[in-house]
Amino acid sequence: MTETLPDVSRMRGEIRGLTPKEALVASTMSIQVTDESSKIAASDFMTGTLVPLRKQIETKRKEYSTALRRLATSWDKEFTPALQSIDGLIGYLKQGILAYVQEQEEKARKLQEELNRKAEEDRKATEARGEAPQIPEQIADLAPAVGKTVRTSGGTSTIRKIPYLDIYDEAKLLRQYLIPDRIKITEDVKAGIDVPGARIGYRQEVSVRSR
To answer: Are 199 and 189 spatial neighbours (Cβ–Cβ below 8 Å)?
Structure first.
């Protein structure tokens, strides 16, 4: 069963209520860490006021995001059969058009080869008879072009060449194109395994925890 729509107006009202107000911003910006006393004051304000508020905001975000994702997933499932059906029909006709055009292109290619062959035979026969070549020199006829665009009252369909990446031999790729598995490397290095070119680094940051 499809879930009911949430009260978005109420949700937005609660979000606005959690957004830091000017007074809180002013109180925070008024703290200048210049000595031990102000350092303690900054830490106290973070752990006692800002971090708990952030937790409250994050909790509400997860609550609303989970509800909306669940709703979106539910509605996606409702539309899936219709989309799959229409995509299948579109795909069937696309494949039919593509197969037909490819067949016509192959016929045109073979016809052009035959026209080129006949033109070459005619040229050699002319030379064998000792006749002067035509000016301009005779060239092969061209096979009819295969139309790749269809315009109708409903719209236009066109066959285009779409580029895509074809990694036909991964072993030949240069090193810079190989994406490192950072999770696996981290696990191995932490486990004491020597991984050339990788190590555990450390950076300083302030960690806070509220009661």
So the answer is: yes
Residue 43 belongs to domain spanning: 8-190
Task: Dig out the tokens for 49 from the structure.
Answer: 């006021």
Q: Give pLDDT tens digits for 104-162.
A: 889 988 998 988 888 888 888 878 877 766 645 555 667 788 888 888 888 888 888 88
CB 159 within 8 A of CB 97: yes
Q: What is the pTM of this model?
A: 0.55
Residue 207 lies in a domain: no
Phi, psi of 155 (to 5 degrees): 150, -160
200, two tokens: 């555990």
Q: How many domains does the chain have?
A: 1
Residue 156 · residue 149 · CB < 8 Å: yes
Task: For residues 160 and 148, give the distance between their C-alpha atoms in angstroms, rounded to a whole number.
Answer: 8
Residue 3 lies in a domain: no
| Domain contains 199 | no
Which is nearest to 68 in space by CA: 11, 151, 112? 11
Phi-psi label, residue 192: left if phi above 0, alpha if psi -120 to 50, beta otherwise: left
